[in-house]
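Section 3.1 - Work completed
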Amino acid sequence: MRPHPISLGESDTLKILLTANEGKKASRPHQAFLLLREPKSNLDTSFPLSIKDSGKGKLELTQKDLPVQFLSGSQTLSASLIIASFGSSKPYRNHAFDLKVEFESSSPPRPVDKPLRYGKLPEIHHIFKPDPKSPPKIITIVFAVAVIAALPSLLIVPRSVNRISCTRISAKPHNTHSHANTTFKRDYAD
């Protein structure tokens, strides 16, 4: 026979204090948490305990920390304590107590929608854009001929531009060179 459930009101705080021991020595486990389970739907959630190196653990729980699904009715929640570590230590999982969520306000708790479950959904029919079409062959041929006709002119134009620029550079007189010679001659003539 289980003892009477612990009640958790809107303004209450549930405090859990424990000390984890391995043999006769206090030690810090790798995992320690409180598991709350709603028996009808098998919905559960876990709350980790903060445990120090001395093995002392603590958990404070209020109604605000509980999922909305646990606040929907007057069900009794099953609370289990789970402690585990690496190595050869034996894990601990046992029913600790039952928890009854109570509401102090006169309004009943609001009903909660059934939780979303992943599963098969109805098929979605997609409408895709039609494949792109090629332009008419005559337009393709006209542009291909235009590109091919332009290629020889692209080869001729750079050569003629190079010749024009070379003739312009060579056509310019170099006055700076002749000016330097005349200045140099004048200085030595005296």
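Second construct:
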Amino acid sequence: MTPFHVVAVSSSGDEGHPSPPPGLRADQYALIRLSNVKDRNVLETLDTEIGTVNEVPNIEELSDESWEICILESHRRTVQDTLGKIFSGSDVDLYYDPLEATANDLEFWDYDTAKKLLRQ
């Protein structure tokens, strides 16, 4: 299994994503966030560099042009190193929480309002 092998989990609760295969537990996976990416062809670059983008069914571009990716918990550091090499100068948040307000959110709303909006 490659460091980028994931199950389809969506932070938005999108029911269009299939359930994980039998025997896999959601607590084995984590969401990370890739931001400050200069490359506009993130999916193509990942496909070229790691060749397993088809195994990343829930990689999603977010409204702030960052990327949410679901990975195996045990591969956090490997994924961070790999993404850092592929997308030089980018930021990888290994402990990304989609329900936590980001700096971008806080430019528009106070913390409590941003948290409330994220939970809707």
